[in-house]
Amino acid sequence: MTSTAETPGSDAFLASLAGFVHEVESAGRQAAAAQIRELRVLAAAGRLAETQSAGSPGRVREHDMIFRSIAAELGGVMRVADRTVQRRISEARVIVEDFPGALAAWETGAITRGHVLVIVETGSVVPPELRAEFETAAIVRCERDTPNRVRSELEILAQRMHPRSFTERHEEAAAGRCVRVVPGRDGMSDLVATLPTAIVEGVHDRLTQMARAIIDTRGERADAAADADVIGTDTRSTDQVRADVFADLLLAGTPALDDTRDTTAGPLGAIRARVQVVIPALALAGADEACDLVGRSPIDPATARLLAGSTPTWERLVTDPITGTVLAVDSYRVPSAMRRYLQARDQHCRFPGCRTAAIRCEVDHNHDAALGGATKTSNLAHLCQRHHSMKQFTAWRVRQQSGGVLEWTSPLGRTYREDAPQPAVAFTPAAPPHDTGRAPF
């Protein structure tokens, strides 16, 4: 039985929680300092190997031998394989030498290790001469949000700064699409398909809808089994059902094992994927602008135009090329204008750090409707089921300010500001032409 001192909201409970938070903050700072120190040492070890072999006739081979030797020495202390140390040295040099600004921001606590890794991963495609510019813009964005939230935006920024067009690089990458088998343990293997992102998202979303339809009919199937004196119930998880339906579709062409056509869930074969794509107006007009697959990563404009123009189960969000505001949203599911606006504004769950796409979230009354909260955009925001429930059943509270800004308050009274996501595309007006002093014609 829970004592009064342990009850959530009691002084004892809050004091214990405050202590945990303080310890985590302190441990995080110490861990970051240690990680940064190790990065600098590993990078210096890599430079040592390069310096020692400089000028040697057999420079490549000698560098490799020295590099191996240094890695083996460090590996003995770190208790990891020398190959692993070599890889970590190479990664450390990239961070320390190619992205010094991100490392410095991490060192001051402005961003975290996760932010640094995202900046390095997304910025690796940017030419060296433009990397500093990319890094500066990326750090500013990272200071305001979590690593998983900023990845998509930084990917698009990096694509725009690349000298080769996104379409050209996408076509080249798509030529390498394939399906391969990776043997696993205990009679299991991974079937890996490398496909364009839009296709993969559509496939996964359709499997998810099928799995949910099957799970939703469990009660009816259990009742039918009981009436027929059949023993056994379906206890598979969503992941397991998704995998089973995937195999059914590939091997039999239909979800033969889980045909739900005779239930209220409807035929599984009629389910189609629904994916939200943010398309700049210039991309619809034919410009080579990377488009944003909300909650995931950029897709090529040709795919976005095809989806926007011909597939009714995809939602089209068109943004103004100057202000970045939403111009239009098409949906054959006929959502209300308010819901379309909120999906365009929020893009994803508005709890700090969560990136579940808005189309998979619930619209929440920030000030409960039962307590007088009005149904208006300034009191509504998207929350995924997890964070919607947490708002309802824990001491976390939220208040919406102007501009779609949410202010979350934790049980300890800490506040976390959650800005509305920036539109995927936002351009500034061009400078006016220089005045020559001549009268117009």
Automatic annotation (TrEMBL):
InterPro entries the UniProt entry points to: DUF222, HNH_nuc
DUF222 domain location: 53-346
Superkingdom, taxonomy of origin: Bacteria
Pfam family, one: DUF222
Coiled coil (UniProt feature): none
Protein name: DUF222 domain-containing protein
